[in-house]
Amino acid sequence: MTRSSPAPLPAAPARRDRPVFESDLDGVLADDLQVSVMRLARRLRSVRGDHRLTLTQLSLLSALQRHGPLTPGEIAEHEQVRPPSVTRTLAALDELHLITRAPHPDDRRQHLIELTPAAADLISADRRRRQVWLAEQVDRLGPADRAALAAAVSVLDRLADPT
């Protein structure tokens, strides 16, 4: 009795969740870029100093530092989150005495959220710590890699904010 070879496996169905790119190289580049950016972001998060705050809380405080006093609705818009999420985050930050609330000068129904000096110091120290770490990493690169990285900054900015 002879053994027959196993039947060939059916071809894998076309993946419908994979985006269509002009070329396979664009897809590979997109995949590689996503992994690299995520790894760098994870590494920068590991350099954080004060781990009592969540990334959401740090992001909200950073938005307030960048834009100045904002209403909760404006914060939600800047952070691209829903207002109930902002309300919960603000409550936690208020409990930690990292924000203050002041009546809105034009709308008595609203209030403006502002950083306390302690929060401003915390955000500045956190940013400085990550800048120092990143500067040390960049310093290890050769001139060609530094030039490539400098050129990539504007491209990354455009990818992050395509508007």
Describe the structure.
The chain has helices at 24-46, 55-67, 72-79, 83-95, 117-139, 143-160; strands spanning 99-103, 111-115. By secondary structure, it is mainly α. It has a domain at 52-127: Orthogonal Bundle (Arc Repressor Mutant, subunit A). The protein starts with 23 loop residues before the first helix and ends with a helix.
Largest sheet: 2 strands, antiparallel
Q: Tell the overall outline.
A: globular
What is the beta-strand fraction?
Answer: 5-15%
Structural class label? mainly alpha
Query: How does CATH name the architecture of the domain at 52-127?
Result: Orthogonal Bundle
Mean pLDDT across all amino acids: 85
Give me the count of strands.
2
What key phrases describe this protein's structure?
163 residues; mainly alpha; Arc Repressor Mutant, subunit A; two-stranded antiparallel ribbon; 2 strands; globular
What layout of secondary structure does this protein have?
Elements: H1 24-46, H2 55-67, H3 72-79, H4 83-95, E1 99-103, E2 111-115, H5 117-139, H6 143-160
Helix pairs in contact: 3-4
Write a concise synopsis of the structure shown.
By secondary structure, the protein is mostly helical. It has helices at 24-46, 55-67, 72-79, 83-95, 117-139, 143-160; strands at residues 99-103, 111-115. It has a domain at 52-127: Arc Repressor Mutant, subunit A, CATH 1.10.10.
